[in-house]
Automatic annotation (TrEMBL):
Function: This protein may play a role in the biosynthesis of the prosthetic group of nitrogenase (FeMo cofactor).
Pathway: Cofactor biosynthesis; Fe-Mo cofactor biosynthesis
Stretches assigned to the Nitrogenase/oxidoreductase component domain: 19-429
SUPFAM superfamilies, alphabetized: Helical backbone' metal receptor
Protein name listed in UniProt: Nitrogenase iron-molybdenum cofactor biosynthesis protein NifN
Molecular functions (GO terms): nitrogenase activity
Biased composition (Basic and acidic residues): 444-454
InterPro entries with a match to the protein in the record: ChlB/BchB/BchZ, Nase/OxRdtase_comp1, Nase_comp1_CS, Nase_Mo-Fe_CF
GO biological process: protein-containing complex assembly
Encoding gene (name): nifN
Family: Belongs to the NifD/NifK/NifE/NifN family.
Keywords: Nitrogen fixation, Plasmid
Annotated segments matching region Disordered: 434-461
Length: 461
């Protein structure tokens, strides 16, 4: 079993993880006409906003309660109420997602009670807007936990309780935070190819896919899952959760509505995708479409082609637990070896299944110390300096990726995404190879030939 090594540093020198509130905000951005609201200082919000804008290259509707010194000491209910009313008046969102920060969490305030009082006192002004609270202190967890807590909170708050009439062709999908916009879009297209309807929560492919609204400025998210879709999740025939961190939201949905769920810890690779396609065939009662079978055949060919480039390579990865598992199983499935594995938190059960001797909870400084001698570094854009110092190529994955365009449109899941991932990695290795030269192939090519015209010399001895 994989050994999980606890964090040894008292401070992160080169941070790997992003905060819980940022993960929750990202999840709320996958809902149509939504605004994430950071309950904390302006600085907390600004830092998260910069990362989101640099990663997606989009306008991000992220707001703050702007806690000051007095509110930090005496309590922030007034700031929270004012922020909610201002957002309602100016933008009229369908959803306001509140993400708490360490600043307010350290006071141990009763946010649920405060929010309940605000809703009761301002019921008329807030009519038509759902307000969801996700407790996401910065000092605990990371982006993965924040995303999961926000999804759980939306289901608990919005989804109608009780057994409901099921729609036989409807599937609820709870994607992990590490799925890109392209992954989610491809996921929907695959489900629909079986004649099924997919309701995805959150759906970043509808809100952060790079489309531009028609000649107007939209102060909220302008696509994604609707509030009505969230309310009616209980009418789905099946729920599919992707990633171990999405187990809790799936369990909550099952407990509230009775909808059964299937958990996929990864959708990258032939085996996991086969299982996913088999489930869709079972639910729909139809065999896999011809184009799905063709993509599977293409992946098989890519596995054969890519094996020669990846087999025996040493890979160093730093990522959130579920993405670490996704990438590590992909590389080992291609014959590579995980030389170093670093993650953000040690609480996820998926870490025990990571195909590595040990997983270090730490930062990018730990990755740099462990990655010496590796053939490839895999982490987000903040790992570029470590890769340069080590002289190792960097494959960018995760969040944030701000020094490359199109990261959200890269496929990494199902047959086509796995195929593309193989090509991306193999091309990195091929670009590092040096073409053979005549000198390298023939070591005697430039040997010195003795000159026979010169008379021999003799020694006196």
């Amino acid at each position: 079993m994989t050994r999980i090594l606890p964090q040894t540093r008292s401070a992160a020198v080169n941070p790997l993880k992003s905060s819980q509130p940022l993960g929750a905000a990202l999840a709320f951005l996958g809902v149509s006409s939504a605004i994430p609201l950071f309950h904390g200082s302006q600085g907390c919000t600004s830092f998260a906003l910069v990362l989101l804008v640099r990663h997606f290259k989009e306008v991000i509707p992220l707001q703050t309660t702007a806690m000051d010194e007095v509110a930090t000491i005496l309590g922030g209910m007034g700031h929270l109420e004012e922020a909610i009313l201002n957002l309602k008046t100016r933008t009229n969102p369908k959803l306001i997602g509140i993400c708490t920060t360490a600043l307010v969490e350290t006071r141990s305030e009763d946010f649920a009670r405060d929010l309940s009082n605000i809703k009761m006192l301002r019921a008329r002004e807030l009519a038509g807007t759902e307000i969801v609270l996700a407790n996401t202190p910065d000092f605990d967890g990371a982006i993965e936990e924040g995303w999961a807590r926000a999804v759980t909170a939306m289901i608990q708050r919005i989804t109608l309780r009780g057994e409901q009439a099921r729609q036989s062709k409807k599937i609820a999908i709870l994607p992990g935070w590490n799925l890109t916009v392209a992954d989610i879009e491809h996921l929907r297209e695959t489900v629909e190819s079986f004649g099924l309807k997919a309701v995805i929560l959150p759906d970043l492919s509808g809100s952060l896919d790079g489309t531009v609204p028609d000649d107007r400025w939209v102060p909220t998210s302008y696509g994604g899952t609707t509030v009505k879709d969230i309310q009616e999740l209980g009418t789905a025939m099946q729920c599919i959760a992707i990633g171990e961190h999405m187990r809790r939201p799936a369990e909550v949905l099952q407990g509230l509505t009775g909808v059964p769920y299937a958990l996929f810890q990864s959708l990258t690779g032939l085996t996991d995708t086969d299982r996913f396609v088999s489930l869709l065939s079972s639910v729909s009662g139809a065999s896999a479409p011809a184009r799905i079978r063709r993509r599977r055949s293409q992946l098989q060919d890519a596995l054969l082609d890519g094996h020669f480039h990846l087999s025996g390579k040493k890979i160093a990865i730093a990522a959130e637990p579920d993405q670490l598992y996704q990438l590590a199983t992909f590389f080992t499935g291609m014959g590579a070896e995980i030389a170093a594995a670093v993650t953000t938190t040690g609480t996820s059960k998926i870490l025990e299944k990571v195909p590595a001797e040990q997983v270090q909870v730490g930062d990018l400084g730990d990755l740099e110390a462990l990655a010496a001698g590796a053939d490839l570094l895999v982490t987000h854009s903040h790992g570029r300096q470590a890769a340069e110092r080590l002289g190792i190529p960097l494959m960018r994955a995760g969040f944030p990726i701000f020094d490359r365009l199109g990261s959200q449109h890269r496929l990494t899941t199902l047959y086509q995404g796995t195929r593309d991932l193989i090509f991306d990695v193999a091309n990195i290795f091929q670009a590092r190879q040096h073409a053979p030269t005549p000198q390298s192939l023939d070591p005697f090519r430039n040997r010195e030939v003795p000159d026979d015209s010169r008379p021999p010399t003799f020694s006196r001895h």
